[in-house]
Design a protein that fits this description.
The structure is a homodimer.
Chain A: E1 3-9, E2 12-19, E3 22-26, E4 28-30, H1 43-48, E5 54-56, H2 58-63, H3 67-72, H4 76-80, E6 86-88, H5 92-97, E7 100-105, E8 108-112, E9 119-122, H6 124-134, E10 138-140, H7 152-175, E11 186-190, H8 196-209, E12 213-216, H9 225-235, E13 245-247, H10 253-261, E14 266-268, H11 271-277, E15 280-283, E16 286-289, H12 309-313, H13 316-324, H14 328-354, H15 358-369
Helix pairs in contact in A: 6-7, 7-8, 10-15, 11-14, 13-14, 14-15
């Protein structure tokens, strides 16, 4: 998987990734479909808002309905009726954040399901096997997401394990090509906590193994923004320039502007979808809470500048009514808008980089969504 | 509003009602959009499944967001983005079933909102005014839905009040045409409990006042099926033949077959939508519960004979997964299917009556959805 860079401005770049299921234009935002559905959306609506790739969670799908079942039914794309690319995470993050009674071993993690307490095991080999059964277009190596704060010693040991597991993922992919049932690309995940020299070591070790793309994990885990931006700025130029750079789990618009400015290409986050369900909506004038009384009889669309189904057809007053009445359509219309807003934001960002006006773009939108740090 | 009858078989008839917002083919099923949205559906999806009319609840919309607000925003059609006909009930049923601290007066009912306990009043005049502000295509007269069981004396007094209120609704409509802001038709509601002579009296009094259609209320309120069918069979032939006959709140497919056989034309019920959200789905082989283990890896569509978005694109296994995982898309796909199933059922029923094969139609579907009584 090669990133074709078609434009750049300082460190920011725009380009495209070709996959057998379609082109992904970068910088790209991936809506999150945790359990095999982007919450409140139908696949048809995802196409309509022009999502080019979605992310699904290996941990969740492995536990329910089970990767074997999905495989027997023709793979994840067929199962969820989505024929564009899917990136799957490795399950590592959820094993550490959601499950109980984790036991870290050298070959992976034993854990109990957060759904029914049943005992399971995920490690590099198993994570690859499961992602292969799902038929992922971009698989992620199994890692330990270093928590924050972490002592240097802990972060170093954790990173060592992550490197070892990443190597095993790569070996598994190469050795057992038939068993992976169509896995075509694998990204490594840079860890190392907030220690720059550990981040550098992690990256160098991964680059030596060789992956199709490089992700940065373990950010936005509770650290101050300064520290996060510090790692982003430090790491980005060290990542291989001709390969996609994926900043995992960061979805704040201001943060993504900083990351794109530094040369990151791919992002995922539940922020637009989760906020939509809570009534927090993104507009060209900033964030608004749709439940505010002032919208009670506001006939205007949510965002005059937006071309989504919600903004083309419904008033703020109706959206407020649906939200106050706890109607499912509230979550639907809000989600369509927030995701379309994000995808339009990324499209405009790509155009700005190509036109070498990203500096102005960032100044404008950073003023609306950014943080003073 | 005149019912143009285009075909019949014994007492069953098929035809059409012309409204300024489109034609309603009868027998017609009206999906229920209680709070200004058919739960889990978008207006676009309602058009796609070919709903020709929906029902909205005056009580709910009067309390939230308020009929004044909806009126200021251009009326209910504009507010909810639905340009086909809307029938509004009068609010009477909900005042009696949902609100607390009801005080029945000769001119209406004082009650407290089930949402915030605030004090309100609805009566014949107010119900007409509210429906006028909503811009309803078919308004219903304000009635008291006689509970079950009811003593003869209670039912008689209640019916007397209903008749009086119906007359006031009609007078209001005629006298204050400007204030009703586009109300074009008004249906009367036959009450009288389970007493046939009271039902007959109610109907005769309403017919004397003169309405655009006649509804039968106060059925399926807890009485045995035999009693309900008895009233349906007794009343149907007494209702004016050239006007729409609307059986309120009855949505069981077996019950509707009996009612259509006896000459009813219009129906509404939350059954298909509520059942959808609970995972009970209607198929050409009968009702199924999507959560059953047998569907875990069932690659087949929900109903091979159905042409809805759900059945064309998703497997039972995926629907079961979405339901077990409590995903919003489960409620969406289930609702699309159940409503399309109902509307297709009605289309086929109309075709059968036109082709004089309704007898076979009823025998076939009654065997699947009917009850032995």
């Amino acid at each position: 998987m090669k990133l074709i860079i078609s434009g750049s401005e300082a460190k920011a770049r725009t380009g495209s990734l070709e996959t057998s299921r379609g082109t992904i234009h970068t910088p790209a935002f991936m809506p999150v479909g945790t359990q095999g559905t982007v919450k409140a959306m139908s696949p048809r609506e995802l196409q309509e808002i022009e999502a080019e790739i979605i992310l699904c969670n290996t941990y969740h799908l492995y536990l329910r309905p089970g990767s074997e079942i999905i495989h027997r039914l023709g793979g994840l794309h067929e199962f969820i009726h989505w024929d564009r690319p899917i990136l799957t995470d490795s399950g590592g993050f959820q094993v550490f954040s959601l499950s109980s009674l984790r036991k870290i071993r050298e070959d992976g993690v034993e854990f109990r399901s957060h759904i029914d307490g049943s005992l399971h095991f995920l490690g590099p080999q198993k994570a690859m096997e499961v992602q292969g059964m799902l038929g992922s277009d971009i698989a992620m190596a199994f890692d330990e997401c270093t928590p924050y704060p972490a002592e240097h010693e802990y972060a170093a040991r954790s990173l060592e394990l992550t490197t070892k597991w990443a190597r095993q993922c790569k070996e598994y992919l190469e050795a057992q090509e038939d068993k992976t049932r169509g896995l075509t690309s694998l990204f490594g995940i840079v860890q190392g906590g907030m220690y720059k020299e550990l981040r550098k070591r992690s990256l160098e070790e991964l680059a030596e193994i060789g992956f199709d793309g490089y992700a940065v994990g373990g950010l936005s885990v509770g650290e101050p923004k300064e520290e996060m931006y510090g790692i982003i700025e430090y790491l980005a130029p060290l990542l291989p320039a001709d390969m996609p750079r994926y900043l995992m789990g960061i979805g704040d618009l201001g943060d993504m502007l900083v990351a794109v400015e530094n040369g990151f290409d791919m992002f995922d986050c539940v922020m637009p979808t989760r906020n939509a369900r809570n009534g927090t909506l993104f507009t060209s004038a900033g964030r608004i809470s749709i439940k505010r009384t002032e919208f009670k009889d506001d006939a205007a669309p949510l965002d005059q500048d937006c071309d989504c189904y919600t903004c083309r057809n419904f008033s703020r007053a109706y959206l407020r009514h649906l939200f106050m009445a706890k109607e499912i359509l509230a979550m639907r219309l809000n989600t369509i808008h927030n995701l379309r807003f994000y995808l339009n934001f990324f499209r405009k960002m790509r155009e700005a980089i190509a036109a070498k006006t990203f500096g102005q773009f960032k100044a404008h939108w950073g003023g609306i969504f950014g943080q003073d740090i």
